[in-house]
Amino acid sequence: MKKLSVIATNACGWPNLTQLSSGRVLCTYFNAPSHGLLEGDLVCSISNRKGTGWKKLSKVAPKPKGGNRMHLSVGCALNGDVLCFSSGFYVQNGELKGFSGHWLSRSGDEGKNWTVDPNPIIHKGNLGTIPFGRIIRMDDQRLAYTCYSSQGKGKPSETWMGISEDDGLSWPKRIKFGKNDSNEASLLQVDDGRLLAAVRTHVDHHVKLCESSNRGATWSEKGPLTLPMQHPADLIALSADCLLLTYGIRNKGLMGIGARISVDAGVTWRPPWVIHQFGNQALDIGYPSTVALDRRGNLLTAFYTDYEPSLGKRAARYRVLGLKWSIKDWLHKSLLASISDGKQLKS
């Protein structure tokens, strides 16, 4: 089962999916058809409980004059409010002209209305950083999100985890992780309490796994999860032991969305596969965000692209797309054997 739907047109994206208590899915994204070089807002669309029937809903973070809101980290507070950290740049004539701030938006009605705080209470060191990924709820009732600082093309980046102990009202603490080189990171807490982070590097743009056994106080490096130019990643739990990694594949000749699973809560990872391909004409793709629609293995992955071959004459256009698929399609015993035992596939 694979079904592709259009969430937004003329939107570059960086989509972020949030599953609401109602069962509907909120998709937050940048609404301009440019990789950040145009003015634009962060907006959201909402699906039905099946992950389809997308409708535009509201502005999550409206652009400042002469600038944009293009980066985001989204999740739900303990009280059910949807939170969105955002940042962006001032732009002029297709060039970046300065950072437009690190804001926090909050919605108490599943994304219909938002209050935007352009001066949130966060660690002062995070004021000039870029938020990314999910805001997660940890088992000790704290919230956490990640943000990073880039030092320029080909140079190592730095990443921090911001922490709130009052359900997102303030975020005074931060912890650095991903030593040597870390960029966009996706957080997940597994059932045994460990924190995992799928972290993009900035020198060769692969994704590595970082782990903390003390709720983020200290971190260790567990090794690479993807090859260079395969980034960034989203990391979710399908069960206590089964984890799913989805990530962008930006290698020339293989532009697509990749996936890997772990069946031992992130200790080891099975070989990757490709769940969607864009073809050689695509130049700007990726940033998948995935949610489980039910407990039967049905999934929804959102991503963006500047070229979608299945749309024929309308292929060349920036879009945010949603792909419904089933993990069961990739877990059949014959498929798993063919990628793990080294034998040829039978005809």
Please report the first level of CATH classification, the CATH class. Mainly Beta
Radius of gyration: 19 Å
Strand content: over 45%
Major β-sheet profile: 8 strands, mixed
CATH topology: Neuraminidase
- Which descriptor suits the 3D outline? globular
How far apart, in Å, are the first and last alpha carbons?
Answer: 22 Å
Second CATH tier, the architecture: 6 Propeller
Q: Tally the helices.
A: 1
Number of spatially distinct domains? 1
Strand tally: 24
SSE series: EEEEEEEEEEEEEEEEEEEEEEEEH
Structural topology:
Layout: E1 2-9, E2 13-19, E3 25-30, E4 42-46, E5 55-61, E6 71-76, E7 82-92, E8 95-107, E9 115-117, E10 130-137, E11 143-149, E12 158-164, E13 173-177, E14 185-189, E15 195-200, E16 207-212, E17 220-224, E18 230-237, E19 243-251, E20 254-262, E21 273-277, E22 285-292, E23 298-305, E24 319-326, H1 333-338
Parallel strand pairs: 6-10
Antiparallel strand pairs: 1-24, 2-3, 3-4, 4-5, 6-7, 7-8, 8-9, 10-11, 11-12, 12-13, 14-15, 15-16, 16-17, 18-19, 19-20, 20-21, 22-23, 23-24
Describe this entry's structure for a reader.
By secondary structure, this protein is mainly β. The protein has a single domain (2-338), classed as 6 Propeller (Neuraminidase). It is built from 1 helix and 24 strands. The chain has one helix at residues 333-338; strands at residues 2-9, 13-19, 25-30, 42-46, 55-61, 71-76, 82-92, 95-107, 115-117, 130-137, 143-149, 158-164, 173-177, 185-189, 195-200, 207-212, 220-224, 230-237, 243-251, 254-262, 273-277, 285-292, 298-305, 319-326. An 8-stranded mixed beta sheet has the order 9-8-7-6-10-11-12-13, with no helix packed on it. It has a 4-stranded antiparallel beta sheet with strand order 1-24-23-22, with no helix packed on it. Strands 2-3-4-5 form a 4-stranded antiparallel beta sheet, with no helix packed on it. The longest helix is centred in the C-terminal third of the chain and has 6 residues, at 333-338. The protein starts with a strand and ends in a 9-residue tail after the last helix. The relative contact order is 0.14. The mean pLDDT is 94.
